[in-house]
Amino acid sequence: MSMSGVVDLAAVKAAGEAKQKAEQQRADPAGGGGSAPAGLVINVDEAGFEADVLQRSAEVPVVIDFWAEWCEPCKQLGPILERLAQEYAGRFLLAKVDVDSNQMLFQQFGVQGIPAVFAVVAGQALPLFQGAAPEQQIRETLDQLIQVSEERFGITGLQGVPQAEAEEAQEEEPEPAGPPEDPALAAAHQALDEGDMERAVQAYRDVLAQDPGNTEARLGLGQAELLGRVQGLDAQQVRKEAADQPTLVDAQLRAADLDMVGGHVEDAFGRIVETVKRTAGDDRERARLRLLELFEVIGAEDSRVVTARSALARVLF
C-alpha cells in the first residue's frame, strides 16, 4: 500500500504535527495516549468528524465505512469490519458514516458508490476498497494500512486494549436462531453478494413467482435490477448527457440510477419527478414506472419516498 494519491482533507493538521503529537502521547502515558478507548466502533456524523476522526487519526488509523440502511452489500460488509475492529484490539478504529445523513462527508471524500471504505491516517484520507470485499482481502488491506501508519507516521494504534476483551466480545452468546432461510431466497442473496446481477434478478423473480407478497425478495429484486443497470456505465458521460439533454428520458433515468447507487436518493427522485413533468405519453409512463421501482428499493415507509410520492402526484394530477 502506498500513501501516494491520498486525499488531503480540509482543516487537517500537517502530517508532521500529527506524528509529533502521537510521539508525545506515547512518551507521556499519563497524558491520555495510553488509555483504552471508549469503543473501537463508533458512529460518526459531520459535526463530530474533526474530533472523532481527524484528531484521533494522529494516534490510530481510522477506517471509515460509508454505508446506508437500504444498501444490502453494506449489511454484509459492516459486521465483518466491526468484528475485525474488535479482533485487531485497537490497531485501528472503525468509524461508520451513514451517507444518507452525512452528504457533505460523502461528497468530500468523492465516494462513487457504497459500501466504500477509506482510511484516515495523520489527517490524510486514503481510499481502501469499494464493495463487499472478501474477508481475507480486507484483512490484508488492514495489515498493510497498519504497517504504513507505523512506518511512515509512527502511529502504532491505541494501547491498553486487552486482547482478552476482543476475544470475549467475539465469544458472546449468539442470539437465538430464527427460522431457517428459504433456500431460493438464500441463493438470490448469494448471487447479489457475488455481483452476478443477472442471476440475482432471475432468482428473486423465481421467489416472487411462488410468493408474490415476499417483501424481502421484492426489495432484493429492486436492488439487483438497479445495480445491474449501472454496471459498465461511464458516470461522467452519463451525467454530461443528462445535463445536455434534459428531455431525453433514458439519459435522465441512467443519471437517476447513478444518484441512487451513490446515495443521493433525493436527487434521484427529484430528477425523475422533473422528467415526468417535462414528458408525455409513453416517455412519461416509463419515467413514472422507474420511480415506483426505486421507491421499492428504499421502502414505502421512508420519509423520502413519502415526499417524492407527493411530488409525483402533484405533477401527474
UniProtKB/TrEMBL annotation:
Residues 30-147 form the Thioredoxin domain. One of its GO terms (cellular component) is cytoplasm. SUPFAM superfamilies: Thioredoxin-like. Residues 165-175 have a biased composition (Acidic residues). It comes from the Bacteria. Keywords: Disulfide bond, Electron transport, Redox-active center, Transport. Transmembrane segments: none annotated. GO terms for biological process: response to stress. Residues 162-183 are annotated as: Disordered. One of its GO terms (molecular function) is protein-disulfide reductase activity. Belongs to the thioredoxin family. This is Thioredoxin. It comes from Streptomyces oceani.
